[in-house]
Structure of Peptidoglycan bridge formation protein FemAB:
Amino acid sequence: MLHFAPPALTAPKVRLVNLADPQDIARLSAWMDGREDATAFHRIAWGEAVARATGHDFLALVAEDTTGDLTGYLPLHAVHSPLFGRAMVSAGFAVDGGIIASDGASAQALSQAGWQLAERYSAPTLELRGGWLPENPCWTIKSNAHAGFIADLVPESPDADQKQLEWVPRKQRAEVRKGLANGLVVRTGTSALDRQQHYAVYATSVRNLGTPVFPRALFEAVLDGLGDDADILTVLHGDVPVASVLNLYHRGTVMPFWGGGVWAARGLRANDVMYYALMNHARRRGCVRFDFGRSKVGSGAFSFKKNWGFEPAPLSYAIRNADGQPPRDVNPLSPKYRLQIALWQRLPLPIANRLGPLIANGLG
């Protein structure tokens, strides 16, 4: 769904939040607490975690009315890469995090201020991932490339695990049951072992898909920054981790964000067990919704999530490019990367894990 804010009566002021001032941060955080459209990626902790792990500057723009009350917020990361160039992204390494605003004037002012920051950073592209979308011919709105998948979890009850399984469509439910019959063990936590095993599984998974792995420091920073609102769920066959996912929790919603499995996971149905176990784990934590995250339309992940009974909802992003500059292309499914992906899939894992973070750090 496209979001366009109502008009304001007076022109707002836009400024950068002083991220070294606890009072300024607390004021912004309190304002976001009252906004239903604020996501986990709008949190200061997310912005600072990404900056700390990747070196990409975190900039927090706010709009204020004539009385000084906050009327809008735009988190930005100044992403720089020798391979993919520069871009201002809202928000970095996220699937959401665009403008949230009380009125159209604030939204428009934030989008213009964001572009001015992009120019200051010599970034020819500004990407707004979700939120309010600028009504301006300088911007391109993309609504048909990606979809999100969100569904309610069953209510907590003594037999909720069984009811959650019954909620899953019949064919997918059969896959989960096959996995449950394989004697797999599920563990959750944020210990050093959880982190090490998750990164090993995730790095193997993305190498097999032909894409570079993100820096481990990014996962560490997000886990440390979000505290109790992030954890890892790992599925083990014997003592061997075969599937693992890093999860984000925000206002009653769980989002499995960085996850994958090794080759053996497919035959063991470990990924199926992983997501079913996460539904139960999140519900016991008090969650009422499961956000399966973003997938590219027509991809295997898109079909997989539909098989689970999730209905796709189009996601809308706004992109502005400097005059004469081509759009930044960091989509791993782009035809221009087909040869690179095929070569990457053949790399020995130690080499992929050494080179991957140097490349993926610039994707943003």
Q: What stands out?
A: The chain has two domains: 13-147+316-328, 154-287+348-360. The longest helix spans residues 192-209. The radius of gyration is 21 Å. The mean pLDDT is 91.
